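chain below, 513 aa
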Amino acid sequence: MKQPGQETNPWLVALVVALAAFMEIMDISIANVSLPHIAGDLSSSQNESTWVLTSYLVTNAIVMPISGWLSNTFGRKRFFLVCIASFTVASLLCGLAPNLGSLIVLRALQGAAGGGLQPSGQAILADTFPPEKRGMASAVYGIAAVVGPTVGPTLGGWITDDYSWRWIFFINVPVGIALVFCVIALIREKPVARNAVSTGTVDWIGFALVTLSLGCLQIVMDRGQDADWFGSDFITVMSLVSAAAFVLLIWWELRHPSPMVDLRLLGERDFAITFFLMLVVGFMLLGSTFLIPAYAQNMMGYRAIDAGMVLTPGGILIILLMPMIGRVVGKVDVRVLIGIGLLIGRVSLLWTTNFYLDISYRYLVFARMGQSLSLAFLFVPLTALAFRGIPPARINNASALINLARNFGGSIGISFCSTLLTRREQFHQSRLVEYAHHLNPAYPDYAQQIGSALGVSSNASTTMAYVYQNIIDQATLLSYLDNFKVLGIVYLCLLPLLLLVSPNETRTAAVGH
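prediction:
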């Protein structure tokens, strides 16, 4: 325990914050590959077990935007400590859950506790480091934020296959206990602004609107594809409730003297652009993280753990590059770094549109490394830009909104890529089938060649089954390529936004304590 007046090494604080963020972010994706095991062990269907993911994401999304208010009201260190302790206890109870219903409830509690970890942790970093060193601090935090989603599926698959799905929750317990003691020893408490509580002006209506808007939207994002989107009455109702609550939330929070979510920050041009760019970074990060392993499994036949390992070299590249980029953030215009990241992302995604059914494992790994290189150039400059010019009193609220943008962007990315994959596969299959008939002059020769190669030239049904399987494979491949094209176009369309961002020197003086 440090003595009063003794300064804490800020890099120790950065490591503690990064480890807490890594633990929480990894838990978003670590359970994905374990769902079949959870469903079998708890006697439930695969579809029912997906609520283990949905419940976590819903409560996580609700708490994240209000974490700034909670930190300001009850104290940042106290709130951060409660979040870590609650997350640890919830993780232990998740591992001990006797049935699916209790696991879903406990995962919701775990998500609520985790929702405050990222914003409060990043705000602690912004206050711990002076402006000229925040780039390196953001790099340390960025490693956890970007690598966490890529490590989760691989680690979850290995633990589930070799041990038990319950251990994907138990591994948080020793880490959480260690973090509690580290936070108590290393992080200093800031003065608490209790005026909202003491005067009874707590924005309960704002909290209710946040819960309805973000909670319903997260359910729509997570369950929409399985429920056929607006073909489902449930998804339609959730969408309408979310949209109405969003409109009311904006109207109410802009009028409230002590809003639960400080939407006025989006009136700052640089912050608003950063918010949107971070939303897209989350979209790209989790969208591509979903597509690459899925391609390795579905198109190349790799096991889940091998597909997850495709992401590992990219994660290592991020770990090596982010500190280097953090060093130059204060010396190079952030617009240049973000522009480089967007261009690299565009080129890497253009490269992935050359995928074919017989590509090598190495080719897939290099494609992912190109995407990771792009993310390394984007995350640190965007984080630095987000807090540039933000006064200390509003850092908690700014951190809450920026982390919400990244996480919700990720949810939108996974949902969008999953839906586009399904819809384009159906489209390409219907178009390719049009050529598989005897009126096409090339088809009889092709069918005869296939039959001869199979040694069943007289068995038309076997030949047709093989042809149809080829059609399905090609349609699926084309749907993946369509996803990569769309992501690449999105990257390219973001470049003009950088023209609206202020250069470094025009806002440096505004940053301080």
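The chain has three domains: 1-200, 204-255, 267-513. DSSP finds 22 helices and no strands in the chain.
thats it, cya
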